[in-house]
What we know:
Layout: E1 5-9, H1 13-24, E2 29-33, E3 49-50, H2 63-70, H3 86-98, H4 101-127, E4 140-144, H5 147-163, E5 168-171, H6 172-178, E6 191-195, E7 199-200, H7 203-216, E8 221-225, E9 229-235, E10 238-244, E11 248-256, H8 262-268, E12 276-286, E13 295-298, E14 303-308, E15 311-319, H9 329-342, E16 353-361, E17 368-371, E18 379-383, H10 389-406
Parallel strand pairs: 1-2, 1-11, 2-8, 4-13, 11-18
Antiparallel strand pairs: 3-7, 4-6, 5-6, 9-10, 10-11, 12-15, 12-16, 13-14, 14-15, 17-18
Helix pairs in contact: 1-7, 1-10, 4-10
Amino acid sequence: MGGSRVLVVGAGVIGLCSAWRLARAGWPVTVLERRGEAAAGASHANGGQLSYSYVAPLADAGVPAKALAWLLSADAPMRLRLSWDAAQWQWLWRFYRACNRKANRAGSAQLWRLAQESRVLLEGLRDEGLGGFAWRRNGKLVLYRSAAALEHARQGVAAMSELGACQQLLDTDACHDLEPALAGLSGPIAGGVHTPDEEVADCRLFCLAMQRRMLEEGLDVEFRFGREVSGFEMAQGRVRQVLLSDEVLPCRHLVLAAGVGGAALARKLGLRLPLYPLKGYSLDMPAGECLPVLSVTDFERKTLYAPIDGRLRVAAAADLVGYDESPDPRRVAGLRRQVKRDWPRAGCLEQATEWAGLRPATPDGVPMIGRAPGGPANLWLNLGHGALGFTLALGSAERLAREMAGG
Length: 407
């Protein structure tokens, strides 16, 4: 095994944080990325919120009924396009089974702990001088447009307070006092939930900063961009070599951190993972006259507005439509209509750049971190973070490193 390295597949935020943590632990690491640069997939232009206290899984009681109603709306926050793909049907069945309060609370508790670990690690990196990724602790305000939704939020605040979250339920006037830019928001609101210690940052810039940090620290990390994994060679229950189009790499350990691509790679190793893409969209634009100071989420619309480095990032949608990464013009137009209707003065919509990405989601919202059950002895997973990849990346890398140190 002399000369063999830990091979991390994927150079998004999960793969780069994994590589950094493993290299700091003394492992020689090679990062393999099929695209030409880091953060070119789901990490490229996501919502930018570091939501350490808003980690509840999508699967919850009442979601299936809401999803049926959403199917009838052109601008619904979730869209479903059924196919003959058995993996989609299996994922949907597992998602349906996870749509209950007990599973949601259990998943929330797991994700909360992982998020707090990530928060501490990011603070440590910032204390060490990591910067250049438009980080700001500006707090988060979730708006509710109906009294019923606000009452449901009250129950959520109580549950999160038991875990240790610092949140405050606000009435309409208190929301406007806290965020003056709400004067430019159209339509009534019933109230909101404020979390003062939430953060925003640019995920792509964070990935590039982490890549630079590894090189500056002199860690034993190699980056191979534009290199797609085509297969594996096994021996004695272990992955011995990873096959690229023009190269064969010896493998000490293999870490799959390739987002939605992780499912196909796992199938080459005989594993069927409960992983499926949820397609999300974002618009990035210069600030308007009512740019919010806080990061704001419109709960009913499932749309977030994040002020990042003097610009406005608007993100929405969780579409189960397969593996097509290209933006759906109808979906982009719907998001533009929504921004123009709901908060027309928050950003310069006519100058907005559009983006779509595939979030790797598990049915219950809890990522797969650690050894792959039933897989090769040296195969490790760091997959399935859904919309929380940026929030959970550092904590996930820490847990992966701990497991690998023990195994």
